[in-house]
Each structure stands twice: as structure tokens, then as C-alpha cells.
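re: that chain from earlier
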Amino acid sequence: MADPSLAAFERRAAEAERRLAALELKLASPGGGGGGGSGGASGGDLRAYQKKVVAMLYDLRADLGRARATTNATERRCRSLEKDLEEARDVIQRKDYRILHLCRAYREAVKEKWDNMPELEPEPSNDGVDPATLPGYKPSAAAAALMSAEAAAAKEEEGEKEAA
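^ sequence. v structure.
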């Protein structure tokens, strides 16, 4: 998972470390500045400049170390998150598979239930026979209410005929 900008940064950092090591070696040698003070500057000015450069290089090295530590921590976190993502995808895939089979089983159960339902017969014609007179007839509550309403209406009609 090497980011192109990160790879370029690492390359520049390695180059900077190499140069830093070379400068430190050069400064630690007895000649020190490589020119031996022949540039017209006094030895004290040159030493102060060298110390300043060395301090800047040490700061650069410390910044580089912090950047590497941050990069490593970020990469570890990214790998951890990728692992968590894969686990979550596996869980979702298992749940989807389970839902698929549960839906299929539900459809089959409903189909079996409806396939085993008895066919509804058409309502028999009344042919003038009162169902209440048939042996073993037990009307439902709705049918009983309807029949009592019909009986009350019939009595009311008879009462009106007699009154007229």
C-alpha cells in the first residue's frame, strides 16, 4: 500500500540522511570545514556556522523520525481497518445468505399452506329451503344476526299488511 507521494518522501528522506551523515563526518574531521579557513572567514565564524548547520541537520533528522513514526502508525491503522472491513463484509455475506434461505423457506411454507387449503365451494342456491330447518345446521354469529334481521323485517311487513 505504497502511496506514490509517500515513496517519493521516503526516497528524499534517505538521501537527506546520507548527506547528513557525510556532513557530520566532514565536520567531525580535524579539517572541519573542508576549506580550512581559506574562504576569508575567521575560524570563529566558521565554527558558529557549522554548529548552526549541524543543529538544523539534527532537527531535520528528528522531524524525519517523527514523520516515519507517524507513517508507520498510519499504515498499521490502515491495515487494521482493512482487516475489520473484510470481517464486516464476511458477516454481511453470511447474513445475506441466511436471509436468502429464510425467504425461500418462508415462500415454500406459504405455498404449501395455500396449496393445502380446501377449495371454497360456491354458495348453494336457497331453492326456497330455510337453512335453519336443515338437520345439524348451526349458523355463525353473522349469519344468525342476518337471519334475525330478515325475520324482523318479514314480521314488520306482515304487520303492515294486516293493518291495511
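The CA atoms of residues 4 and 10 lie 10 Å apart.
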